[in-house]
Amino acid sequence: xxxxxxxxxxxxGIFRCLKTGVNPEFPEQGTPQGGVVSPLLANIxxxxxxxxxxxxxxxxxxxxxxxxxxxxxxxLDRVSKFLAxxxxxxxxxxxxxxxxxxxxxxxxxxFKVQNNGKFRCVPSADxxxxxxxxxxxxxxxxxxxxxxxxxxxxxxxxxxxxxxxYCKMDGSRNSLYHIETRAxxxxxxxxxxxxxxxxxxxxxAFPSVPYSESKFVNVKGEKSPYDGDIAYWSxxxxxxxxxxxxxxLKRQNHKCGKxxxxxxxxxxxxxxxxxxxHSNSKINNLLAVHESCHDYIHMSKGTSQEHREPDAGKxxxxxxxxxxxx
Length: 326
Prior knowledge:
Elements: H1 8-19, H2 38-45, E1 55-58, E2 61-64, H3 72-84, E3 104-106, E4 109-113, E5 119-123, H4 125-139, H5 146-163, H6 177-189, H7 195-205, H8 230-238, H9 243-251, E6 269-273, E7 286-290, H10 291-306, H11 321-325
Antiparallel strand pairs: 1-2, 3-4, 4-5, 6-7
């Protein structure tokens, strides 16, 4: 806990997670593996292991990058000693030595250095198989109609494509051509659907997500969201947005167009149309604002419209009740 860089409230919460059991009958079990707190605790415990040798780590999954002259056995011994001091050990079943030209799987991706020297990253076979099973379960479910299937498929497909959007996603497999063809046939079999409506549902079920191979930008050095460098993190989070939102943020120096504060990762960025016309996407009509600021803008507009005075350019309609009574 002494090495953890975080506000006092967060440190207190993490300390309580470490001390509190998940089951009253077995209080010594602690936090379950695969839980939402498990990766955070792994990062705290394993902080510093990356100083042993050049490596890449996500929670408790780690890749150590070796050069031809490096001593693999000696480095593994140092890692084992580091883990032993914290009551842990290296999993022999999951630890293997492989060449980058042969390829390896990590976090659902397959990495490989090709013969021409180019580094490639594609979804791993196991990851694609698990994703395909999810899609097949929805498409082949006879309890759902085509419309319901499209609604259930959309978040699954969008999530998978977003996760792999920095990989090489062309080709019939990764572009999901065969899966889409199968889904279209199933949709089109329904008596209520035509080829036109089936194609429309297919576009809804398989939303397109642009990919850019190997364009992910790493976090600089030992930067932390809690280090107080608001300018760096607001600029980095702005790069997560594409198209007009990214251009608007860059034009506004990564500040909210409403409140003027920096854009941080704890709140979404919305694109506001100044004149209220969503068909007008000209640069001077777009404003990047916080989600809460966007809600406030439209809330203010609604209130002003409800209580607005009669238009000064037009005469107010006369009250004819008095004239009728007379």
